[in-house]
Write a structure and sequence with these properties.
By secondary structure, the chain is α/β, with parallel strands linked by helices. Helix content is 31%, strand content 25%. Bound molecules: acetyl coenzyme *A. Acetyl coenzyme *A (ACO) binds next to helix 2, helix 6 and helix 8.
């Protein structure tokens, strides 16, 4: 059976840099607090009028896959911040990229694990033999759903997009070797937006209370994130009878440096084997892993033959891991 391989990657981050020092002029915080608790120094913020689809298009356009928009027959966009509730942002992106109308397009919401979920979904669809090339994008404009008056959340998030192109290869043992996905649906209240959906439609009162913004129980999320990511990483390693030491590079969801350090300790794998860019972008949710993957490839951190482990957690709480041989 052919395997699913990553043909190319691309990423985009908006120009505007919002530093911790600048944030400390609008909420009661400091560079010292933010950096020591999260590892974040700065994040990117979309320009006025710049949308999730705009960022996704920029990321896709620089993907070095050697295929054109006309070659793609499947587009999956992982996001929690589509341009609008309806239609799917993937349809807007399809049009902006000039892709064929017989391309299957849909959005996927698994929050920060969204990219790993989308990778697994695209891979299964390609393996069915009914699609040839998939464009998988993680793109977020989190600045549009953050409560800029809530210091416990607004310091953590940023905007950006990452894209990969997937194809099929007859070479055995290459590409996506496996995935492990799951969710703790009993923990939906830890990270959520309570209003603006069908159970609590937006009202003038909900807008005044900023209930359309993201709310998080940070400490609880932290603990479960470490547990879920550790389990997701161990499960996939066990499935493939691998020891952590055989992984060339781990690309974890970039939410908090302390979470990544905890995973490094649990897996007994030194931090040098983890790709970290959270200090420059903050948490870009579904965009975090594809941006990191693109940077890792372009900076030579991934070489042919290497094993890379992706591991994520997000609102839901969802989690996922993926193992890739280059
Ligand atoms: N600046 C200064 N002080 C602050 C800030 C801030 N920005 N935010 C909170 N504080 C204060 C709190 O009010 C609290 O004060 P108190 O003790 O007087 O009550 C104190 O700092 C400590 O707050 P904690 O919440 O205990 O801080 P903690 O060390 O747990 O760090 C953090 C908080 C960074 C949010 C951490 O819990 C975390 O990273 N959690 C995981 C978050 C995460 O990864 N979320 C993304 C999920 S992915 C997705 O799908 C979007």
């Amino acid at each position: 059976m052919p395997s699913t391989v990553i043909l190319g990657t691309g990423s985009y981050a908006p120009e505007r840099v919002l530093t911790n020092a600048e944030l400390s002029t609008t909420v009661d915080t400091s560079d010292e607090w933010i950096h020591s608790r999260s590892g974040i120094r700065e994040r990117r913020i979309a320009a006025p009028g710049e949308t999730t689809s705009d960022m996704a298009v920029r990321a896709a356009q620089v993907a070095d896959a050697g295929v054109t928009a006309a070659d793609i027959d499947l587009l999956i966009v992982a996001t929690i911040t589509p341009d609008q509730p309806l239609p799917a942002v993937s349809c807007l992106i399809q049009h902006k990229l000039g892709m064929r109308t017989n391309t299957a397009c849909f959005d996927l919401n698994a929050a920060c694990s969204g990219f790993v979920y989308a990778l697994d979904t695209a891979s299964a669809m390609l393996a069915s033999g009914r699609y040839r090339h998939a464009l998988v994008i993680g793109a977020e404009k989190l600045s549009s759903i953050v409560d800029w008056q809530d210091r416990t959340t607004c310091v953590l998030f940023g905007d950006g997009a990452g894209a990969i192109v997937l194809g099929l290869s007859e070479q055995p043992g290459l590409g996506l070797l496996g995935t492990k996905l799951g969710a703790y649906g009993d923990c939906t209240d830890l990270l959520c937006i309570t209003h603006g959906g069908s159970s609590n439609p937006t009202t003038p009162e909900s807008i005044a209370a900023r209930d359309h913004c993201l709310r998080m129980k940070g400490k609880e999320v932290f603990k479960l994130a470490v547990r879920a990511m550790d389990e997701a990483a161990r499960d996939i390693l066990e499935q493939h009878q691998l020891h952590a030491d055989q992984i060339g590079l781990v690309i974890p969801h970039q939410a908090n440096l302390r979470i990544i350090e905890a995973i490094s300790e649990y897996l007994e794998l030194p931090m040098e084997r983890f790709f970290v860019n959270v200090e420059r972008y903050g948490n870009t949710s579904a965009a975090s892993i594809p941006i990191a993957l693109d940077e890792a490839r372009r900076t030579g951190r991934i070489k042919p033959g290497d094993l890379t482990l992706l591991v994520a957690f997000g609102a839901g709480l969802t989690y996922g891991s993926a193992l890739i041989r280059w």
